[in-house]
Amino acid sequence: MIKVFIIDDHQIVIDGICFELEKEKDIEWLGSTKLPSSLMAILKHRRPDVLLMDIHLPEKSGLDLCLEIKELYPGIHIIGLSTYDQASVIRKLLQNGASGYLLKDASKNELLTALHEVMQGKIYINFSVAHILKNNAPDAGTPMLTKREKEVMELIAEGMTNPEIAERLFVNCSTIDSHRKNMLTKFNVKNTAALVKFVVRHNLI
User: Fold this and answer.
1) Which structural domain, as residue segments, surrounds residue 22?
2) Average pLDDT taken over every residue of the chain
3) Does the residue 140 lie in any domain?
4) DSSP label at 63?
5) Which strands form 50-53's sheet, in the order they lie side by side?
6) How open is the CA angle 121-136-204, to the nearest 5 degrees?
């Protein structure tokens, strides 16, 4: 039996998936919640094999929640289930430990295939998601961001200041300033606005 739990802030999505999965003989429906805080409390007592997770959630992003859960409960397989079709979001969730990603217009068969494949230790990405990633691959020949530069760049793109980024990443403000200057030099751009525009255009975040 594959024990499945879902976190999503839309009840109609929860009800629809529950209706479909409860018909399956090898699926055990463990329940649902809409809040990350409730989920973390539930996981202390009930462990699903697979957690279906929306990206846009109250309290915190599903991207951050995924990373937190994988650090605490590495045995839980997480599948992103979202309307977000941006390559950067999909890549970030997979980088944070997710085992798969489905758009919410996926078929029942795709969902069932995803559940079974992640239980076998595979990464599941259906055709739609694979197409998005392929068409938004980083441009060949463009310098790549390091892991830390990418973290900093994503926060810059969100409009955060150097002190705010430093606090988020638990480093000195001078370190963030150094990363920012290095990226300006690496991509030969004059200011932060041009830097953000460059990395987005070249699909680097």
Assistant:
1) 2-135
2) 88
3) no
4) H
5) 27-33, 2-7, 50-53, 77-82, 100-103, 124-125
6) 90
